[in-house]
Amino acid sequence: MRNPLSKTIVEIPPSGIRKFFDIVSEMKDAVSLGVGEPDFDTPWHIREEGIYSLEKGRTFYTSNAGLKELKIEICNYLKRRFSLDYHYESETMVTVGGSEAIDIALRAMLEPGDEVLIPQPCYVSYHPCTILAGGVPVVIELKEENEFKLTKEQLLSAITEKTKILILPFPNNPTGAIMTYEDLKEIAEVVVEKDLFVISDEIYSELTYGQKHVSIASFPGLKERTIVINGFSKSYAMTGWRLGYAVGPAAIIKQMLKIHQFAIMCAPTTSQYAGVEALKHGDQDVERMRDAYDKRRRYLVEALRSMGLECFEPYGAFYVFPSIKSLGMTSDEFATKLLMEEKVAVVPGTAFGECGEGFLRISYAYSIDNLKIALERIQNFVEKHRSR
Amino acid sequence: MRDKILETIDKNSKISAADLAVMLGTTEEEVTTAIKEMEDEAIICGYPTLINWDKVRCERVTALIEVKVTPQRGLGFDKIAERIYKFDEVQSVYLMSGGFDLTVIITGRTMREVATFVSEKLAPMDAVLSTATHFVLKKYKEHGLPLVQKSQDERMLISP
Fold first, then answer.
1. Looking at beta carbons, which residues of chain A come within 8 Å of B155?
2. Which of A159, A193, B50, B73 gives the lowest tally of CB atoms within 10 Å of its CB?
3. Is B158 in contact with A295 (Cβ distance < 8 A)?
4. pLDDT of amino acid A387
5. Count of C-beta atoms within a 10 Å radius of residue A373
6. Are B22 and A302 a contacting pair at CB < 8 A?
């Protein structure tokens, strides 16, 4: 028999998260701080709207780009929250989560050999999706001393003649870093000057603490070069609904829509109706959840620092990214031993790129009570291994 | 700061001042002082526990009584409300808009106890014109909290 497999896909390494997930799943009574999704249930009025749409028998396909009503609400929302102006018809499409949008944006824009700049540590899909789209991933290693922000200098030194796309994953999973207006301004200038395009993954845009999220697409000249990706998973606690969207220049959206049309047809109809309700009446829920995350964030950062773990102040998403270098272990070792000895699951920083070595991703999408139990165990662990 | 403290302890009064301080980004001293002041000003009036008595082998009956009363000149409804809420068995008293004046929620050990309270204490008061008693059959949610066991965390233990 011939080899049934594609060489490209076989050569892509499996996600580091996956490997760790398999170990954790075997531990029955582990306390986990390892998730990348909210602990809140989707607000009831949103779920109720989904149920109602099923009761009404709205169980058909929607148009490929999504319900008109939802696209209009998406544009209203982006205008209201981030001063972004998009047309619902030609510049907006609804996707199966933000992750589909990442994939099809890359596929719609890349020619074989085009380079994609990926600032790491970051979410796990940009790298493999770039390869699958025929592009060449070029990693930019973000530094703790820059608060894990992308700097102009780092960007400039990574650009070659083949560079086409910059991925901008802020607020960042796993570091919790954000990019302020000033930070983005420098980046925006380089993007225009070097004639690049941006895929800005803003899925955590509602979860920033103390300062409001700024989209790079709001800078002059950037709207024409940016695909903004966002969705409902994190802001409205709707991960399982698989609902996201992309907005950008009509010419790019049109081609993305083509891939979406052939591969997906349309995002789930029930989810789309629930999404309309979320955008219309969900602002208060977002605020309530953001407040809760902020309290946990402070609590977690303080607790980790008081154990003597260096912990950079994260202003976004729901992760902290403490350094464990002082304990003389690798991230993998730390995470594995912590799981075996204290039954607490966290994700090694290396799951998000090699430069995550020496760090852990700890999620605070958990109740304070839950965090307390886990933190006590982490403290035991740190004390035990520090005294050795 | 006061609002933030109140919002945080509204559903969980057991959070320590030290934890509150960290969560709200302030000092323990400031939290302690603010709470003390709010206790003195009767903004915080107590720290009761939310109990689902149905799960305990302990008979309790709760009734909601609609009461129509005659307000008193110069005192309005306050005086009569006070006369009613001073009874130990009375849990809550609210002044209402609409078809009746006061909602009185009372608990007793038995139905008879509640009935006796209504017929011998409440109804005979001079200002009380009429009462209508409704017994509570089951409590589902109180103080914003469902009276059910917390559901398990069904998320995958690790996700990207």
1. 35, 37, 39
2. B73
3. no
4. 72
5. 13
6. yes
CA distances from B75 to A33, A114, A374, B125, B130 (A): 57, 82, 56, 16, 20
Q: What is the pLDDT of residue A72?
A: 98
pLDDT at residue B152, as a whole number: 84
* pTM over cut 0.90: yes
Fold of the domain spanning A7-42+284-386: Aspartate Aminotransferase, domain 1 (3.90.1150)
Beta strands in chain A (DSSP E): 31-32, 92-95, 115-120, 136-141, 163-168, 197-201, 226-231, 244-247, 319-320, 344-345, 347-348, 360-363
Phi, psi of B124 (to 5 degrees): -70, -10
As a whole number of Å, the CA-based R_g of chain B is 21
The C-alpha of B22 sits at a distance from chain A's nearest C-alpha, in angstroms, of 6
Closest to A177 measured CA to CA, from A382, A349, A378: A349
**Average pLDDT value for chain A:** 96
Residue with tokens 């029955």: A28
Q: A230-255, pLDDT tens digit by residue?
A: 999 999 999 999 999 999 999 999 99
Topology annotation, domain A45-281 = Aspartate Aminotransferase; domain 2 (3.40.640)
